[in-house]
Design goal:
single chain, alpha/beta, Rossmann fold, 6-stranded parallel sheet, 4-stranded parallel sheet, elongated, binds beta-D-glucopyranose
Length: 372
């Protein structure tokens, strides 16, 4: 699996893991230290060591060929979730699940549609459910239904709120969440801008950084935290900032292109930095930037999150300032491993974390090679 190839790359993240504790709910105060990565390393060590260790080997042995897995994805057309679900299915198969027993449903960004799909999975008596909720705020209802049916549940990508997670622990339910802490990705976005130096970023020399923010779905904690923490990294570095625009692009490339094009029309050269909560929107922003005749790295700076291949190509070419690797490989593997742990009775902690990785021109090729 691709995971081995990522070991060296993730060794940088390992430093953060050791500092912050992988899987802990603490906000990563620091991005991974920019130290020289050891040439060969194993998986990021788990400082908590309470959670089942991730590995390429099945989390437990056993015959899963007859086990039915139901997977709900909030929306198939989402680029990042497409990478996630593809890797999830392949990895489940590599663990011994039969392809015909893995059913993946498209929630079409509609909670009603997804709830019907969950009901159908329950009627079908699936052995385990992996759910990327359309609305994280529906988690309580979803959990009650699934737990009531006696089916273990692994939430992915869209984190339910703290009180909901607390219920799982209080009731000792077979329910967990697998995902990265979006505060870390926001911080990394901001740090990549700070690392360029104020002199370079403050193009108009007014002592402040003028930026626009293109947000994902505001209900989503990833969008909320990336919006907040990217800018916080600038102010934490002592930079003055001025927000010229803040718009909701709903994770969508076309929408972001339209929003950034409007913002460029309205604010023109005043815009120095474009923060996008994900790469799909950064790619849309780049189209608008190109059309406006602006040049990333020269008269504007642009960062995203996810490390989609197209974004990585842009980082390599200098047409995007940077992105943050949202490791769909380790997240999908952890989700599948968690499902296995429920099926074997080994169980899981109620939160299974992972680390983001900063991507600049320095390591973009390496990341691209590892995800190909
Ligand atoms: C990703 C986005 C994706 C969203 C879906 C985020 O973690 O960065 O690209 O659209 O998850 O929930």
């Amino acid at each position: 699996m691709k995971k081995k190839v990522l070991a060296a790359l993730l060794s940088v993240a390992m430093v953060a893991t050791l500092l912050a504790g992988c899987g802990s709910k603490e906000a990563p105060a620091e991005a991974p230290a920019e130290t020289e990565a050891p040439a060969e390393t194993e998986e990021p060590a788990d400082a908590d060591a309470e959670e089942p260790a991730e590995s390429d080997a099945p989390a437990a042995s056993g015959d899963f060929a007859d086990k039915k897995v139901g997977v709900c994805i909030y929306q198939f057309s989402d680029n990042f979730m497409t990478l996630f679900r593809t890797e999830l299915e392949n990895y489940l198969i590599s663990l011994g699940f039969a392809k015909e027993n893995i059913t993946i449903q498209d929630g079409q960004n509609d909670q009603g549609t997804q709830s019907n799909q969950i009901d159908a999975f329950i009627n079908d008596k699936v052995d385990v459910l992996i759910i990327n909720p359309v609305n994280s705020s529906s988690a309580e209802t979803i959990t009650d239904k699934v737990v009531g049916a006696g089916i273990p549940l692994v939430y992915i990508n869209r984190e339910p709120d703290e009180s909901e997670e607390q219920r799982w622990a209080d009731n000792n339910w077979d329910v967990t969440y697998v995902g990265c802490d979006a505060r870390q990705s926001g911080t990394m976005q901001g740090e990549m801008i700070v690392d360029l130096g104020l002199e370079k970023v403050d193009l108009n020399g007014d002592g402040k950084v003028q930026y626009i923010m293109i947000e994902g779905d505001p209900e989503n904690v990833d969008a909320k935290y990336r919006t907040e923490f990217s800018v916080k990294a600038l102010t934490d570095a002592g930079w003055e900032v001025e927000q010229l625009d803040d718009q909701v692009g709903n994770w969508d490339q076309v929408k972001a292109q339209e929003l950034v094009s409007n913002a460029l029309g309205q604010h023109g050269e005043k815009i120095e930095v474009v923060f996008c909560n994900n790469d799909a929107m950064a790619l849309g922003a780049l189209q608008a930037i190109d059309t406006a005749g602006r040049k990333v790295g020269e008269d504007i700076f642009l960062v995203g999150v996810d490390a989609l291949s197209e974004a990585l190509e842009n980082v390599i070419n200098g047409t995007m300032t940077g992105t943050v690797f949202n490791d769909h490989i380790s997240q999908s593997h952890s989700a599948a491993d968690a499902a296995v742990n429920y099926l074997t009775g080994a169980g899981n902690e109620h939160y299974i974390g992972c680390d983001y990785v900063k991507v600049t021109t320095e390591n973009a090729q390496e990341v691209l090679d590892s995800v190909k």
